[in-house]
Amino acid sequence: MAITAAMVKELREKTGAGMMDCKKALTATNGDAKAAIDWLREKGISKAEKKASRIAAEGAVAAYITEDAKVGVLVEINCETDFAAGNEKFKALEAKIAKHIAATNPKDLDALNASEIDGKQVSALITDATATIGEKISLRRFVRYESAGKLASYIHMGGKIGVLVNLTGGSDELGKDVAMQIAAANPIAIDETGVPAEVVEHEKEVARKQAEEEGKPAKIIDRIVEGRIKKYYKEVCLDQQIFVKDPDKTISDILGGEKVVEFTRFQLGEGIEKKQEDFAAEVKAQMQ
């Protein structure tokens, strides 16, 4: 059967595969479009498997909040380069998965990967995206909140940092301001009670040793440690932090009568060991 340009174009629109790959698929399946899609998917899976060992530390953090601001999601999906993260297909995949999480409330990543969107498992969508985009795609983590008050989010630098915050209530502006504060100042807790005891003890020990190294009298060291811990709380507790948009106010001041119930801050690629690429060597190797 003769393979026409129109057949190739139609298959490409359906699959997102390259023109030559579509032509090969149609030729291999004697022009059967349905069989050609399977052929491409099989080849795509093969390509995706070869990419499984690569390090995916780029990508984006995305947020989704329902119209009533009662359900919200923060999700990180990784790829290998920031160029691929700007791909419209990558962005569409991330938006689709975020909405799916909001609607289905999977208990963890395994449950999310096993769940289905339009009849296809999420894990298969990730594999297909790896083949289509040409880089390893990895669904890394997510958080989903349900709120009796108000949810707000903030995405910084196109997905380098993402924040989801649950408040007892307040305006859209307040929610955005608090989310921006969390993105910028990276608090570890809402207030002093949320700072882990072991972290406080570690900071006390550091402060005590600093005071001793500075030659402070033993009788005042305890007061010095106490003072430095109070300063530490102002740096890491959201409610005590100086508001980034107004240095005369703290977050507690701008909250008024509202409270922050919980928050999550994802920084893209944190904790992932990035591979250092020698692109000149790579190009040379490919040419040889």
Automatic annotation (TrEMBL):
Transmembrane segments: none annotated. GO terms for cellular component: cytoplasm. Coiled coil: none annotated. Residues 72-270 form the Translation elongation factor EFTs/EF1B dimerisation domain. Its main location: cytoplasm. SUPFAM superfamilies: Elongation factor Ts (EF-Ts), dimerisation domain, UBA-like. One of its GO terms (molecular function) is translation elongation factor activity. It is found in: Cytoplasm. It holds the Pfam family EF_TS. Keywords: Cytoplasm, Elongation factor, Protein biosynthesis. Associates with the EF-Tu.GDP complex and induces the exchange of GDP to GTP. It remains bound to the aminoacyl-tRNA.EF-Tu.GTP complex up to the GTP hydrolysis stage on the ribosome. HAMAP family: EF_Ts (MF_00050). Belongs to the EF-Ts family. This is Elongation factor Ts. It comes from Selenomonas bovis. The gene is tsf.
